[in-house]
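SEQUENCE-TO-STRUCTURE ENTRY
===========================
Question of interest: how does this chain fold, as expressed in backbone structure tokens?
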Amino acid sequence: MTANSCILALDVGTQSTRAGIVDLQGRILHIAQITHAVDSPQPGWAQQNPDQWWQEACRAIRDAIRSAGVAPGDIAAVASCGQMHGPVGIDGEGRVTTPHVQLWCDKRCQLQCTRLRQEHPEAELATVSANFVNPAWIGPKVRWYKDNVPEQYEQAVCFLTPKDFINFRLTNVPATDPSEASGSYIWDWQADSYSPPIAEAMGVALEKFPPVLPSSAAIGTVTERAAAETSIPAGVPVAAGGGDFPVSMLGFGLVCEGITADVTGTSNLLATHSATPLIHPAIQNLRHVVDGWIPFTITDCGGMSMKWCKDLIDSAAGRDVPYDDLIEMASQVPIGSDGLLFYPYMLGERRPENMAARGAFFNLGLNHNAAHLIRAVMEGVALSTWQNAERFRELGHTMDAVLCVGGGTRNAMWTQMKADMLAVPLELSEEPEAGIKGAAMLGAAAAGLIDNLTEESLKRRKTDKIVRPAAANSALYKEVLKEFERMYHHMLGYWK
């Protein structure tokens, strides 16, 4: 290793591909970002092109190395995280067979999920997979390819998630890690390996799923071809990495029990740490990138709802309206948005009886203006978070404080809303780059530069600010919460 050794961390996100240069103390030297869009050709569909991710990754890597002022020879390892559950088919020559990859929030495989429930007792499957059937999981998505574009399924020798696809382009090695494998639905949580019986029930070939290595293990090294495209020296080790969500938990410090985290990015997640899964229809479970599991709930359109709202206001104004201006407008509207409610299910929901849901404004009146819509969107996402928190509490999970991470922490008004609704303090990390930092830790471990990831994660964890609930606001929100729940239950089963 050189005196200036650093880690190259990649994040293949839903809205951008990013490359970060991180030193061995966890300081980010530079992040290069290239944005991309989500293609939604039909309601409930969300797709992207994986070759575009690779092209963007190459550009971002070159930009990050140049802008950080480091020599390529200083890179000790590469580690990736990324949006989860999107199966990229590759053939025997490494070519993509699925140019339109179903993203984590894509709901098109609902029919495959329904058939599985009809043909097999879902509760029994959950005792093996630790999860209930969901269109987000990789297994049903792969079955959709088999049923609807069989040539893409047959040509694929392997299905890789987004970060695994980038790793494959870097190393020519198909592999995944436990955090992604546990999101396949064909994972046996007790055996800690793929489940042949569930794969058979799903109707997918188990050999089409990649080998599983620890998240901090090196799966291979950068090839000469990848070196020419990225400027990373050939021979640099590449870690297996992990899904962006578990890797963010590592970067934020959620690596032991007793911690709950709120993650507001494209989606909105509420997660905790557990030695074993919490098996319940309303809760999903993923293997952590360290020991243990992450039980969580998710609102697929969390931050994305706010982006949609901004796009709406931009189109009406005919210009780019800064987020700060939107927040200022919303601050002029009272708690409860004068009765206006927003349901943030614009890409459906994970709850089984509401997977086909759509976004909705309810109780819209002539007294409501653009500011009301903005505040209602923010409140709607926060109300969904509160709903999810209640599910954990019903299972006996104590929630004395919640750690907040992700881009949503930049919105002070939003975090205050959540604190008021949850009626607990929120510990904020103003560092929004937990994913990049977590990936860098995995890369350092793969290079032999970190011995104990859990200890290192806790050592680097910091809280920059505590947002405490306002009792008066909490009392007002209790009534809003009741109305949100009342209408939510009326809508269950409406969308087919």
User: Anything to note?
Assistant: The two ends are 57 Å apart (CA to CA). The CA atoms of residues 26 and 437 lie 6 Å apart. Residues 6-245 form a domain with the Nucleotidyltransferase; domain 5 fold (CATH 3.30.420.40).
